[in-house]
Model the fold of this input.
Amino acid sequence: MAILEVNNLKKIYTTRFGGAKVQALANVSFTVEDGEFAAIMGESGSGKTTLLNILAALDKPTGGEVKLRGKSLTEVKDSELAGFRRENLGFVFQDFNLLDNFNLQDNIFLPLVLAGKKYPEMRQKLLPLAKGLGIEELLHKYPYEVSGGQKQRAAVARALITEPELILADEPTGALDSKAADELLDLFERIHESGQTILMVTHSVKAASRASRVLFIKDGEVFHQLYRGAHTSDEMFQKISDTLTVLTTGGERE
Amino acid sequence: MRSRIYSKLAWTNICRNRKTYLPYMVSAVGMVMMFFLTINLSMDPQVATFEEGNWMQLILRLGSIVIGLFSVIFLFYTNSFLMKRRKTELGLYHVLGMGKTHIASVLLWETLFTALLSIGAGAIGGMVFSKAAQVLLLRMMGRSIDYVFTLQPSALVYSVILFAAIFALIYVKSVIEISRQSTVDLLYSKAQGEREPRANFVLAFIGILSLGAGYVLAMTVQNPTDAILVFFIAVIAVIIGTYCTFIAGSVALLKLLRKNKNYYYQTGHFIATSSMIFRMKKHGAGLASICILSTMVLVMISSTACLYFGAGNAINAAYPRDLEATIGMRKTNDATFAAAGADLDRLLAASLQKQGLKAKNEIRYTLCAFYGQIEDGVLTPLAEYTADGYTCKVMTAEEYNENFGTHVSLERSQLLYKKNEGSLRETMLTIADKRYAVIGEAKKMILRGTDAVDMANAIYLVVSDRSEFDRVVQALRQSAAAESFRLVNCRALNLTEGNGSAASETRISAAEEELQREALKMQDKPDTAIGSHKGNQPVYASMDMNFRTKGSAMETFTNLYGGLFFLGILLSLAFLGATVMIMYYKQITEGYDDKERFHVLRDVGMSDREIRRSIRDQVLKVFFIPLLGAGLHIAFAFHIIKLMIKVFGISNTALLIYTTLASFLLFAAFYIVVYLITSRAYYKIVAVEQ
Done:
């Protein structure tokens, strides 16, 4: 069953003085199945960030629609949007977006506190999660006291603690060294295996090669997609690299 | 031309950073103006010609010193804010190949432009407003405004020198700062992770202790003569206390709140509590400064306004009649004293006649005045005045009735009293070995001249009749006070013109001058005097004659207090300006910090409205704590301000309450307006995201 349906999404930006129009998304359609680990790849300026912002309900499309579990995002009232995002979506960002004035534990609690949950309940949810992510020793540290990989794991914990329908990850390995990136991708795979749906935007071939499906965006459209099927990560890596070569050398659509 | 490049770069820098540069220059212009205005007036030759003009100019000169010192501190503060924001930019120059010396020359040009603009604009503004300031000062001193507009060139020179020196020092400081830091430090000085502040419980404790000590000192001081010294100590204690409490106490309190899990993990408290910890760490000192400055403004305005507006009442109380004439004599016998009284009457009659004035509602009485101490129900005469003693005055019931329209009759062992403040605890009072029953207050008694407002304790005693009065006088002649006690003949009268209408000020002061002249003649050339003691120099030499008119007293007071009030307003303006600037800079810093926080919170699932409300709540708390603190300070300072004002001769609690409340309300309104205006700068920064 499709958890996320994206139909004919368009986004046109108008410059401030009403002059030139820039098309960020021309016509994007795809679906993400329940329990899938999908990656979206594309160069800078291909519309990745715009797409993610629309999926996250932070931005509104010019045309087309996004449905989450059959419910169109445009139907959600503005006043309920924040709550909707909090309950259904989990976010992992390139630069972690942890608040410096909270320790890791409080950063992870943040969405729950906003939802009005009580401390004992939050604590109960946190403990197994922190253990699974290997950050239970670090909960009382502040973001500036831990490494990038640890920060990103805390951010993952913050995304998971609300048990969202969908995790949206924006270049999650972008600010990590290769070891920490590998660890994070292992973690994503584990989460995925436990049944969590993940949609990751990246331009790292290595990150994308871990996904079960890779979508390629170019010039605001879905250009191509690769299914992992029975391939290993290494084979997937090779296939993605080949596709990117075709993409950048301007090959025609298959 | 290389220097052309630097000057051009410097100029673009100033223009590009105008959001932070403009307020800096505006405050510099304001300070230059304020300093120039004050020092210009303090040198104004016309102000010097007033009766109290010298005193006034001394006050103004002191005021200009305060403004000068304050300018140094304040401009350094605002400049450090400026530099902090610009370090990344300067670091970038360094990376792009400019040496530190080159950066220093860019800074030199920047400082030069800033200094030229601010000193120039300040001096021009000062000259433009100097006439207005002069008019205001004269108005408040109760003078007519027919003085010509004057500018003192030396005032201009002083202002230019002072502010040029300040800017030079600021430049030196900036260069030292830049040269000490590496390029990387400069580039990333803003991005350094914020450490969570440690809760310094020791400092918080010291702060609260110091604050408490200041408050207790201010509340418990009893003697007006100690008040000024105690006030200074209390001010220092409160300043230390305020800084420690704002910086450490607030963090400690918030951390305690955070430990309480049920409180902390609530939607409304969670973000507010933890962000406040960081806000207070960064802004504690600035907020404490705002609090202190606000308190200073309140203290200055409320007290000087009380002096200024209270002068009229105080003078009416102290001078019940238009003209007061007294003749006091030491070591005298009854006959000489009576003859001197007759001389005084003759002198008054002659002078008034010469001016064509008539006496009305005359009060005449004899006082026996001495210093004394009341202990265990015994009034002991003293040779000299002591701080815990009284100036005592004795009069008879007969004269009391006659002069104040009462119908009191006393037994020979009874007396009435009147103190300048409070009531007498003793019910029995022993004077000259005789026990008197204190049966009540002489309610109608008007205390003479300075006794009414004097900082010293004064007590008036009414005895039954002349024989009791004489008994006290006889006893005094045998006591320690023998050399210092005086018998005083008092005359107080209203004056009318020949046709019965109220006498004009000029005629009254002419009469006063006439009396002074005649009195001097009596003492210097007894042969030509009117008196009955022709040629009897020793008698005249031992008396002190005093003539005071209500009008001249009023003039002295309004001169003095008008000047003080003027200075209070001037200094308050300077401090208010500083408060506004600090607030503005704080809002800007908050804005840049919150911009990032805003972003994260939105991503985590907080709606824009929730975020804005949360931030507004915090910013509101942060900015209104200083106002609250100032209110608290002024409430605790009320008692000691009352005492200090008494030293200046005004004792009017109700008026002080009014002026304090009025200045607080006015200030609060001003504060809110400034807050609203500066918070627009804040929202502009935060809202760029959307």
Q: What stands out?
A: Chain A is about 35% helix and 25% strand.
